[in-house]
Amino acid sequence: MRDRMEKTLDFYASEAHAYATRQRLAEKAILDAFLKHVPERGSILELGCGGGQDSEAMIAAGYDVHPTDGSPELAREAERRLGRPVKVLRFEDLDETDAYDGVFAHACLLHVPRADLGAIIARIHKALKPGGVFFASFKAGEQEGLDAFGRFFNYPSKDWLRSVYEALEWQSLAINETIGGGYDGRRTDWLHVTAVKAA
Fold this sequence. Notes:
By secondary structure, this protein is α/β, with parallel strands linked by helices. The protein is built from seven helices and nine strands.
């Protein structure tokens, strides 16, 4: 997985400042839907925090947020925004058990090769406390490949993605289809997944 991620991480390294300082506010509707599952002042791991906008909003709402990113350059940008350390963490290096009330992974797991995604989601499942909530979003498609910037995407279908999640025990699992955009400014079909770990 590391080899397929290197070019994607190279993009984020070279574009870190522009990416982190672009006009992007925390997406309130997405955050609100996620946070309704998290207890007051609950512990949240954010994977792929990018510029830190979503972590900033969750911290302001009183949650115990642990922001991380796989790119050292983006982690530094997020640290500047948040005024606190941001851990550099690759998805495959997550190794915690029953640690978080929620895991928030907005527009980051979409870079994981399909062959590796099940194992990454299993790591996240393990890191969640029983009853913990996991949100992730993916650009929808039919086969993995590169975008115009040379970034790798897994582009899953709804049915394929559901089959990956259903290999684990969830109390509930919802996959919503939405239309939005991305860094490239193009219309994008998204899959938003909210899964609650079995208690």
